Amino acid sequence: MSSSSSTTSAVLLNTGVQMPLLGLGTYKLVASEDVYRAVDAALVAGYRAFDSAAVYRNEADLGQALKQLLPKHGLTREDVFITSKLGPEDQGERAMEGALRSLAQLDLGYIDLYLIHWPGTQGLVVADQRNPGNRAQSWVMLEELHAQGKLKAIGVSNYTPAHMRELIQSCKVPPAVLQVEFHPRLCQTELRSVCEEYGVCFQAYSSLGKGELVTDPVVMEVAKHCERTPAQVLLRWAVQQGVPVLPKSSNPDRIKDNARLFDFTLSDTDMDRLSALDCGHKYCRDSSEVA
């Protein structure tokens, strides 16, 4: 991957590939013009990673935007890192079909990282005992496409420690990444420990707690002290621990601001103050009950 970006900090995956610490999340970016504008602003600001998913319904728009914008910014396909995810409706026997659909929608030749989006299967209750078998079947399909070079790295999202251990015990190709909700109110100590034990990159989403954490008094105090925005402080708290982040926005100015993470450092005291907010609070859907 090119180092022409202004935000080149990256983490080494167990595949030997570098994944940028900063990526643009595209959840809720559904209009093609919004995707184009956000990707354009992100490339200018130094983003070199983009995170999509089948359920976001924007894979085709993201792929089209990149094909138009990469030449404009003097970049090639190899300069960007693209993540997408298998939808819960395709979990199990339809996993190959779902992953191939993502590849076709993006139409970028390959996907750098492809994740199983959810440990459960759409249409099944959380305790349904078919879920473990469907997860295992999905993973075998992803391993096949990984072997073919169509998915450069494979991983999972929203898995619990139990789901991770189940996967590690049965897989031929270990997951490269676990993407989960992570912020000062949800420090995910056990999950991070499991990932460290098995050499899996732990990646954060919802770093701002769906926008609620930017008004937390401690976050605001630290931000004032650092002369930074609360969002920058929350994102820096993660990347300073080596955790990649995926802030999402359709606002070009905010996209630019969110990228300013690598020219300042939080003190140990500020890091500790933020980490002390941990109370196990989840702003997003809870996957811990999925069998």
TrEMBL record:
Asked if Oxidoreductase is a keyword of the record, the answer is yes
Alphabetically list the UniProt keywords: Oxidoreductase
Sites marked Lowers pKa of active site Tyr: K85
On the tree of life, the source organism's domain of life is Eukaryota
The residue ranges of the NADP-dependent oxidoreductase domain are 22-277
GO MF: oxidoreductase activity, acting on the CH-OH group of donors, NAD or NADP as acceptor
Query: Entry's SUPFAM superfamilies?
Result: NAD(P)-linked oxidoreductase
Report the active site residues.
Y56
CDD domains registered for this protein in UniProt: AKR_DrGR-like (cd19136)
Tell me the InterPro entries matching this sequence.
AKR, Aldo/ket_reductase_CS, NAD(P)_OxRdtase_dom_sf, NADP_OxRdtase_dom
Q: Kindly list the positions annotated as binding substrate.
A: H117
- Family statement: Belongs to the aldo/keto reductase family.
Protein name per Swiss-Prot or TrEMBL: NADP-dependent oxidoreductase domain-containing protein
